[in-house]
Amino acid sequence: MATTQKAASPKKQGFGGIKNAIWIMVICLIIAYCFYFLVLGNSANFVGGDKSGHPANLMGTVYKGGVVVGVILTLLLTVISLAVERYFALRSAFGTMSLPKFTLQAKQLIKDQKFDEAQKLCDKMRGSVANVVSASIAMYKEMEGNTSLKKAQKISKIQQAHEEATQLEMPTLQMNLPIVATIVTLGTLTALFGTVLGMINSFQALSSGGGADSMALSAGISEALVNTASGILTSWVAVVTYNTFTNKIDKLTYALDEVGYTIAATYDANHTEE
User: Fold this and answer.
1) Which end of the chain has fewer beta carbons closer than 10 Å to its terminal beta carbon, N or C?
2) pTM of the predicted protein model
C-alpha cells in the first residue's frame, strides 16, 4: 500500500483541478446578473431609453426575457468555466507526451523487462497514466523479491496495485463533470420554467382584451422565446462539454488497462509456476 502511495505522489505536479466548484458558480452568478442588469438592461438597448418600452436591438430583447435569463446565463458561464478548468486539468493528467506513443513505448519496455527505463519514461511523461504505470512497476519489482507468495498471488498483487493506483487518479479526472451533467438537465428545465412564465404573461394580456395590451402580449412571447433559446444553448454547450471530456477520460482509462494487462502478462510469461 505504501508503494502505491509513493508512486501516486507525482499527481501533485501540474494543475489538478478546482475542488470547490461552488465558488465558480457564485462568481458566475454575480457576473451573469451584472451582465443582465448593466449590459442587457442598458437604456440604450430600448426605444426612447425606456426599459418598459420596446427593445431597440437583440440585447434589449434578451433583457425582456426576465430575471430567469440571469439564471440561465449563470449556468452557461458555469459550463464554460468548468470546460476551461477540465481542459487544463486533463491536459496535465495526460502528461507531457502523446498518450498512444507513451503507451506503445511503455509496453515494449515492460515486455523487454527494462523496468528502470520504463520508470524513467514515466518520470518524463508524468500525469495520471505515468503515476499508475509507476505504481504497477514498483509492485512488479517488489514481487520479484518476494518468495512467500505463489505466482498467481503475485500477479494478483500486481493487478491490485494497478487498480488501486487507477482509483486514486479517477476522482481527479472526473472532478466537476457531474456538475456539467446536471446542468444539461437544469438548462432545459430552467428554460421551460422561463417559457411558462412568458406564456402566463401572454395569456394574461389576452384575457384583459383590447389592443392596448398588444405590448404586454409581445413582451410575454419574447420572454418565452428568449428563455427557450438561451436554455437550449446552455444545454447544448453542456452536452458537448460533458461528452468531450468523458471521451478523453475513456481513452486514458483504456490506455491504463492496456498497460496494466501488459505488466501482468509479462510477469506471467517470465516466471514459472511457484
Assistant:
1) N
2) 0.83
